[in-house]
Design a protein that fits this description.
Elements: H1 14-24, H2 29-38, H3 47-60, H4 64-70, E1 90-94, H5 105-112, E2 120-122, E3 130-135, H6 136-149, E4 157-160, E5 165-166, E6 205-209, H7 216-222, E7 234-246, E8 250-267, H8 270-280, E9 284-293, E10 296-305
Parallel strand pairs: 5-9, 6-10
Antiparallel strand pairs: 1-3, 1-4, 2-3, 6-8, 7-8, 9-10
Length: 307
């Protein structure tokens, strides 16, 4: 029997079970630990060998026993953990106390090369679960280091779905669909009066919808309307725009030279607008636009794809 293995088979503490949970991704590590301790065919590690590898293995989060167990587990080939959305967005990284590379906010700062220590956030439902908020670049940097130097550590990242932004300038047309508002003819001037522009807090407000939001059934669901509510979508079109797709399936309205025909809808309140911004996510931003309807040209807002 290896000298470093526990002699008391049934003696398990929280640190041991949590270590195995993180290192080997076990839902119920208790049973696996007991099975390993009772096995007559488990590998052995001498004190001399443990002394030789101890520093490196403890850096990975192992003690002698978990390291010994790891020798019997086939090593998984490192694979890319990146997804298409990794290039942008915000993420939460769960801190793993038994894994030094991501055990604390200061450790994360070091491994990600951050200029400041990220703020620790606690799960409202589980006070022991702690996270740090990271940019996509920091997430990728951490994954690269873990994949290269700590292949046994699998970090838990949670992608935060942020709402579409809305930042309407009060005295200029910025931001507007299909218009470069830095050009002289679109800059703020005495000719453009504040009351002539849609403002940040103007409600009700006309919106131009395309894609799934042009479907009355989807709109009913997102605004928590009763299923029998009649939504009033008005036929409309806009110019200086074009429709494309991203992710292979999502509609995206961008600046262009064409005309897009779909529909207009009156958003009654900020609450309704906030629900739509959450649905669209931070892949989009709210911008001003002019829409053409049967009654003429009207100022409106729409969701423009930002990437």
């Amino acid at each position: 029997m290896a000298a470093c293995l526990d002699n008391e088979i049934l003696e398990l503490d929280v640190a041991t079970t949590e270590r195995w949970r993180y290192l080997f991704h076990m839902a119920v590590p208790y049973l696996s630990i007991l099975e390993f301790r009772q096995s007559l065919n488990r590998p052995t590690v001498s004190d001399a060998h443990w002394d030789e590898v101890r520093f490196k293995q403890e850096t990975l989060g192992h003690d002698c026993e978990s390291y010994t167990y790891s020798l019997s587990v086939p090593a998984a080939k490192p694979t890319s953990r990146r997804k298409s959305r990794d290039a942008t967005g915000t993420y939460l990284l769960k801190l793993m106390p038994v894994c030094p590379p991501i055990s604390s906010a200061s450790a994360v700062q070091q491994i990600a090369g951050l200029s400041t220590i990220p703020t620790v956030e606690t799960d409202e439902e589980d006070a022991e679960a702690q996270f740090v908020r990271l940019s996509a670049d920091a997430k990728i940097a951490i994954e690269d280091v873990l994949m290269s130097d700590y292949p046994q550590v699998q970090a838990t990242f949670v992608w935060l779905t942020l709402p579409a932004s809305k930042e309407l300038d009060p005295v200029s047309r910025y931001p507007s669909l299909g218009i470069d508002t830095t050009l002289p003819q679109y800059r703020a001037s005495a000719i453009v009066q504040r009351e002539d522009l849609l403002q940040q807090e103007d409600y009700p407000v006309l919106y131009f919808f395309y894609g799934t939001l042009a479907d009355p059934n989807v709109l009913l669901q997102k605004l928590n309307f009763r299923p029998d509510t009649e939504t009033i979508h008005q036929p409309a079109h806009i110019s200086k725009a074009r429709l494309t797709t991203w992710g292979g399936k999502y509609n995206a309205l961008v600046n262009g030279d064409g005309m897009v025909l779909v529909s207009a809808f009156v958003v009654e309140s900020r609450d309704q607008e906030d629900a739509l911004k959450v649905y669209e996510t931070d892949r989009y931003e709210v911008v001003r636009c002019d829409i053409v309807m049967d009654c003429g040209v009207e100022q409106a807002l729409t969701f423009r794809f930002v990437g």
